[in-house]
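thought: user wants a sequence for this fold. calling inverse folding tool.
action: design(structure=
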């Protein structure tokens, strides 16, 4: 098994950084500037989603030119995408749900992988494949920390950690991070799609810096 865990190489980096920028990149030319802006603001981990035609090339570029950035690939929906994520050199993959075919293919080729969970069944399925660092998605519309406390409680002795995405922002960042369940938090508020399209690298850097300030407060 090669699932994403708190002690795996990418997993431990995520838990150390505690912030995961979730990105949608429409232009390959934006890949390096946005990653550099996040790094300048103190955010050293990102999940680049497979929602645009340039996504894979953007991942390859960032992995090649900015090795100090921990790079994950999200919205992985097929086993073919698992193979391509591995070939880009990305540190890990992420899916919105818990798909056994995807998890098992990632394990076969040695790609650390974190499935999305929202129910006890999702968690049970994920831990059966060796995963211990899980994406809690969509966090806020599922019931936030109250819901997570309920669904995770039966598995508390297994050392699980969760990364909530979906509705996490500066407004509730500190609340999430105060929970023992939370290993890191992720979201698009650090580098919103419109700021990337505008090339507003200064604002993205400031967003990252403010999130890091809240983290260390």
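)
observation: tool returned 217 residues.
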């Amino acid at each position: 098994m090669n699932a994403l865990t708190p002690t795996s190489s990418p997993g431990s980096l995520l838990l150390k950084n505690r912030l995961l920028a979730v990105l949608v990149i429409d232009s390959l030319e934006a890949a390096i500037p946005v990653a550099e802006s996040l790094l300048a603001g103190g955010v050293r981990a990102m999940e680049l989603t497979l929602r645009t035609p340039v996504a894979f090339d953007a991942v390859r570029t960032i992995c090649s030119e900015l090795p100090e950035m921990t790079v994950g690939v999200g919205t992985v929906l097929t086993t073919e995408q698992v193979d391509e994520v591995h070939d880009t050199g990305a540190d890990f993959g992420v899916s919105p749900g818990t798909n056994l075919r995807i998890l098992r293919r990632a394990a076969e080729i040695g790609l650390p992988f974190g499935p999305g969970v929202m129910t006890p069944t999702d968690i049970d399925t994920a831990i059966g494949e060796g995963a211990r660092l899980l994406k809690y998605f969509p966090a806020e519309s599922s019931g936030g920390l109250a819901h997570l406390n309920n669904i995770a409680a039966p598995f508390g002795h297994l050392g699980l950690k969760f990364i909530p995405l979906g509705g996490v922002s500066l407004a509730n960042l500190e609340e999430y991070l105060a929970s023992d369940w939370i290993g890191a938090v992720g979201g698009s508020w650090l580098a919103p799609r419109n700021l990337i399209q505008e090339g507003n690298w200064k604002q993205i850097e400031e967003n990252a810096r403010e999130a890091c300030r809240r983290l260390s407060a």
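thought: summarizing for user.
answer: Here is the designed sequence. The beta strands are 19-23, 45-49, 70-74, 92-94, 113-114, 116-117, 133-136, 161-164, 185-187.
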